Structures are given as structure tokens and as C-alpha cells.
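Input (structure):
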């Protein structure tokens, strides 16, 4: 690793404790009092460290000599001050974790070099005495924390630091540099080692390593035009990278080995991290690899998706003129979807609806589905089934979460019988009587159960890989999918997500179309476009509720089922758009704020009476 201030002591903590510090680690030594009860051996280690760095004064402190001098003059001798590093081409700089002090955080620089983006990490700088103290603390940490330790890892390590400081005469340096030393220890023993700042950076979408001797690459949410940027972090060896891949498996509660050299696991924390990795050169060359896809710490809401993004410079071409109704005001450009589109999906959730979110890999399908589901009426019941947990809904919803269980091939001849695949989960989910059944992604035979749910009258929402509505229908009716023509005509709407390259070079996600399927004849259907995206102006149309109602077959169907007039449906759409616009204008677009808005709106609707609606005649 080339980040200054970080030291490679992987031989010491190759099998470091996990977050709970109570792992089933067969390589961990038996625990005991500080220094593991091996005081003579530990003093030899300390002496070797002190002699190695040429600090006889530190050795005297470890022997207890000069302790009174240290206590009388706690301020350490002044160190040579290094001139500040000059970094050119800086586009952005911030600290990780956000809001932490310089002693307890890494500083990140996003820079441009020769037209390419780079992601630079600077860890807190250590002077010579701090380096020796950190080396001593690292050396003895594994032997000093009991296996039965439970609780907050930070508190456990902090207690250890003070105990070791008292036992070794390091009290002065620990008192002055406690936060800094604790940062390094947490990074190494309960964090993610070299890439710990990257994993904890909520601005990063993905971390990728293709081989140990190449820089780690990252995908930055705010600088998507640079795609996968190089960092200044490089693993020192293939052994070190393999050790980290095994650590990822350990943190995920599973294993990886040369017999089972692939890993797919989700690490839960402030944000869920989806890990895919390979070990050694069994199935990947020249060696181990991994990718970590990170969700945001707070789920993106539909209001955030419908809010205007900051454009680096104006898009080419004229802006679409906006004739907004008096009930709300909206700029229909530079956003993932328009407020009218958000209000449209919200209104669809009022009745039985079957929505598909189509798009390519990593286009934002699950993010959009998650945001739409968050607008569901609090009175309904949502059941989700996923193979990788990605959906995250507000607490006020009645939400039941199901997850697949896969077996590790080759571990046992009978292991397969204990597997729970998506088709099994979906059949189970239907017995929970959901109001809305949501599937993380529909790929194959599970589509038969989704089709059955549609036939039984359940509302469904799922994602699917397809380029547009026509290709989506083609996939549904082609093996291994098992939709019939009769099931296809029951689909309410298909929203297509796509990555779009803007005129300023940014790569953004847009809902490029929303299409409805209108039944035509006994088994046929017709694809009707309701919303469309214009890449030339980065904007959406239509721009008024009246236009939406004129183009939508399903909204008119809702009017018939509720006994509403067309004016009532148009008014309901406008009021919902006004509520979302109000959230955006107020700047409070958090999941909690949106949940409060949905609950208040649902309460107002219920007070109007059963199916009374807006302006029903």
C-alpha cells in the first residue's frame, strides 16, 4: 500500500478477530491476561521492536525507567514538522468517516490527472514514537483480548489500549494520540485493512480489485464520468490479498477455500455491502480478485430521485418549456425521474398493480423499486423475497423479508435438500397473504410463481434484465421464463432504467420510459408509452397531469374501478405531485420525512371515506 502512515503488519493480524471479537478462529491462540500470560516473550518482542527502530529511550520506558519523567512532563519532545503535501488537480476533498476529527479519519482527494480521475487516501500521520507505540499495540492485541469478549469493538479495543499503556509505560503517547492509535487499530482488527476508508466512504458505489499488483479501483457516485478510478492503494502481495478475501468470508459468516474458490456474501452494517470474490488462481488469473458493491447508508427516496441534480455545465440544446399546473411547480430536467412520474407510481399502488422495473446491470433497478415501495400505504403488507438482500424499506411499513439459503456444493451429498431457492420462497410468501409481493430479481423458473400470484390477484413488483418494454415482454415469454400471453396482458406498467452519458461527460441513471400494457383481444396486448426521456435536453415528458391522464390506460382504469371522474384522477395525481414537490422544496428528502408524508396523506385519505377520492362526483 502506498498510502503514507499505514504499515503492513499482516503477519501479526492475519487471523484477526472479527467485529464481535468472538470468532470461531482455529488459529487464534489461547487468551489470557494482558500479553497472554507470556510476559517474558512479550518483553523480548518489545525489546526487539525498540532496538529495530533504534530507540533506546523507548526501551527504557518499557522497562519502567523514566516513568516519573514522563508523568511530570507529559508533552513529548517536539517532532520535525513535515511540509504539507501538495496535490494538484483536486476536484473534491473530504474526510472518512464524515465529521470525524483529523486524528480519527482519513482524508480523501479526488483529483484529475491527464484526463483521468484518481482517488487518493491520506491516513493520519504518525511520528516515530507513535509508530513504535502502534507496533507494540498491534503485536499484542490478539493475545490480549479474550475470546469471550462481547460488546462494542471500539470500546473493547479502547480498554485494551489503556491496559497496555499502563503495563508498558506508554501512557504519555497514548494520552496524546489516543484517537489516532485507536483509528489504526480499529482499521486493522475490526475493519477492512487497506481499503477500510473506501468501504466506509458512502460516496463510493463499488470497489474493485482485479489482481494484487494493480491499484484498487473505485466507482464514485459524484464523479461517474471517470468510471472506475484508480486509487493509490496497492496490495503488497498475493498472500496479503488472499488473507483479505478470507477475512471478507469470515465477516460474512461463511468460508472460502481452494476447494470452494468463489464467494458471494452480503456484509451488513451501516450500509449493506455485496461481496463477490475469488481465491487464488483456481478460477481467476493471475490470482485472487474481489468486488464490493455498496448500498448507501440511507436508502434513496423517490423525492431524491425526482429532485434536480447539479449540472457541471448546462446541457446542450434548448430546455423544454414547462407549463406546470398551479398545484405544483417542477423543473422537468436533470433528475432520475420527474415528480409526475413519482406521483404516477404512487397512485398505481392504490390498487392491485403489477410493475416491472427493467434495465441493464447496475442501472439502478433495485433503487427505483425500493423507492416506489416506500410510498405504499402503511395499512398494506409487503413481502419481499431476495437472493441478495438489497431492498430496505421504512420502519412504518408492515414488511416481511425473506432470503434464499444456498448450500455449499460438495460439503455433503444431502446438502442440496436444505436449499431454499427463490421459487420456494415465493410459494411460501403467498401463504403470508401479502398485499404486495416483491421479488429482488426475476430470472427463470421463479417467474411461474410470480405469474401465479398475478392470477390470484396479488400486487407484484420485481426487477428484470431487459433493454426496453418490448424486449421485456419477449424475455417473459421465452424459456426459462414461464409467462403466458394471458399473464403478460395483466402487467400494469414497465419502467425502464438506463445509464446515460450527459453532455458534460457524467454517467447518470435515468428512467428512460414508462410503458403500459393494454389488453387487446383475447390474448393480445398493446404497448402504450406514458412517459419518455429526451437525452438531448436531459428532460422528461409529459409535463402536466392532464397529459399523463390522456396517455395512460391504467389511470383511466383506476377511475373506473374507484368510480372516479377523469378530473378526480387528474386531481389526485396533481396533489401527490404537489406533496412530493413540497418535500423537495423544503430540502427534507430523508426516508423518515417521506415516511411521515406518506402516513399523513394516507390518514387524510382514510378520513375522506372509503373510495371517496379527490373530488369524486
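Output (sequence):
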Amino acid at each position: 500500500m502506498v498510502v503514507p502512515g499505514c504499515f503492513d503488519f499482516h503477519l501479526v493480524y492475519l487471523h484477526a478477530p472479527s467485529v464481535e471479537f468472538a470468532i470461531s478462529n482455529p488459529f487464534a491462540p489461547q487468551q489470557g491476561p494482558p500479553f497472554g500470560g507470556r510476559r517474558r516473550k512479550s518483553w523480548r518482542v518489545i525489546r526487539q521492536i525498540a532496538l529495530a527502530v533504534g530507540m533506546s529511550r523507548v526501551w527504557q520506558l518499557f522497562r519502567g525507567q523514566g516513568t516519573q519523567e514522563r508523568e511530570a512532563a507529559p508533552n513529548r519532545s517536539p517532532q520535525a514538522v513535515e511540509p504539507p503535501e501538495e496535490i494538484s488537480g483536486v476536484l473534491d476533498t473530504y474526510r472518512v468517516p464524515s465529521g470525524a476529527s483529523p486524528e480519527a479519519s482519513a482524508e480523501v482527494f479526488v483529483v484529475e490527472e491527464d484526463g483521468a480521475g484518481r482517488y487518493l487516501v491520506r491516513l493520519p500521520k504518525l511520528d516515530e514514537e507513535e509508530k513504535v507505540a502502534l507496533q507494540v499495540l498491534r503485536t499484542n492485541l490478539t493475545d490480549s483480548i479474550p475470546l469471550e469478549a462481547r460488546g462494542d469493538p471500539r470500546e473493547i479495543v479502547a480498554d485494551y489500549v489503556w491496559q497496555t499503556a499502563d503495563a508498558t509505560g506508554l501512557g504519555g503517547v497514548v494520552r496524546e494520540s489516543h484517537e489516532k492509535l485507536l483509528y489504526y487499530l480499529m482499521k486493522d482488527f475490526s475493519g477492512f485493512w487497506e481499503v477500510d476508508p473506501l468501504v466506509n466512504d458512502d460516496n463510493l458505489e463499488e470497489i474493485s480489485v482485479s489482481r494484487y499488483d494493480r491499484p484498487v479501483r473505485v466507482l464514485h457516485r459524484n464523479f461517474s464520468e471517470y468510471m472506475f478510478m484508480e486509487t493509490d492503494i496497492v496490495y503488497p502481495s498475493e498472500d496479503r490479498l488472499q488473507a483479505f478475501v478470507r477475512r471478507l468470508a469470515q465477516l460474512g459468516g461463511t468460508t472460502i477455500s481452494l476447494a470452494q474458490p468463489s464467494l458471494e456474501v452480503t456484509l451488513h452494517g451501516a450500509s449493506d455491502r455485496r461481496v463477490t470474490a475469488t481465491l487464488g488462481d483456481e478460477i481467476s488469473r493471475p490470482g485472487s480478485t474481489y468486488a464490493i458493491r455498496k448500498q448507501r447508508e440511507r436508502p434513496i427516496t423517490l423525492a431524491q430521485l425526482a429532485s434536480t441534480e447539479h449540472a457541471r455545465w448546462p446541457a446542450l440544446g434548448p430546455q423544454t418549456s414547462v407549463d406546470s399546473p398551479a398545484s405544483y411547480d417542477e423543473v422537468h430536467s436533470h433528475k432520475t425521474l420527474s415528480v409526475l412520474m413519482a406521483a404516477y407510481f404512487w397512485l398505481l399502488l392504490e390498487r392491485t398493480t403489477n410493475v416491472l422495473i427493467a434495465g441493464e446491470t447496475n442501472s439502478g433497478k433495485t433503487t427505483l423499486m425500493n423507492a416506489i415501495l416506500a410510498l405504499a400505504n402503511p395499512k398494506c403488507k409487503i413481502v419481499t423475497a431476495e437472493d441478495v438482500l438489497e431492498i430496505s424499506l421504512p420502519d412504518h411499513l408492515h414488511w416481511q423479508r425473506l432470503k434464499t439459503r444456498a448450500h455449499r456444493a460438495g460439503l455433503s451429498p444431502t446438502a442440496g435438500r436444505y436449499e431454499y431457492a427463490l421459487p420456494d420462497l415465493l410459494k411460501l410468501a403467498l401463504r403470508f397473504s401479502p398485499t404486495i409481493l416483491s421479488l429482488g430479481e426475476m430470472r427463470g423458473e421463479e417467474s411461474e410463481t410470480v405469474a401465479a400470484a398475478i392470477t390470484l390477484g396479488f400486487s407484484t413488483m420485481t426487477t428484470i434484465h431487459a433493454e426496453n418494454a418490448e424486449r421485456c415482454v419477449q424475455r417473459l415469454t421465452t424459456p426459462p421464463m414461464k409467462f403466458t400471453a394471458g399473464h403478460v396482458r395483466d402487467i400494469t406498467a414497465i419502467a425502464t432504467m438506463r445509464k446515460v452519458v450527459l453532455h458534460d461527460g457524467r454517467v447518470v441513471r435515468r428512467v428512460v420510459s414508462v410503458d403500459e400494457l393494454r389488453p387487446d383481444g383475447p390474448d393480445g396486448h398493446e404497448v402504450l408509452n406514458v412517459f419518455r426521456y429526451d437525452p438531448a435536453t436531459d428532460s422528461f415528458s409529459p409535463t402536466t397531469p392532464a397529459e399523463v391522464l390522456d396517455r395512460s390506460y391504467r389511470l383511466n382504469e383506476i377511475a373506473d374501478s374507484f368510480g372516479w371522474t377523469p378530473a378526480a384522477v387528474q386531481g389526485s395525481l396533481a396533489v401527490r405531485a404537489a406533496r412530493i414537490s413540497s418535500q423537495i422544496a423544503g430540502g427534507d428528502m430523508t426516508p423518515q420525512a417521506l415516511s411521515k408524508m406518506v402516513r399523513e396523506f394516507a390518514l387524510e385519505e382514510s378520513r375522506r371515506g372509503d373510495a371517496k377520492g379527490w373530488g369524486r362526483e
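Notes: The chain is about 35% helix and 20% strand. The CA atoms of residues 70 and 172 lie 6 Å apart.
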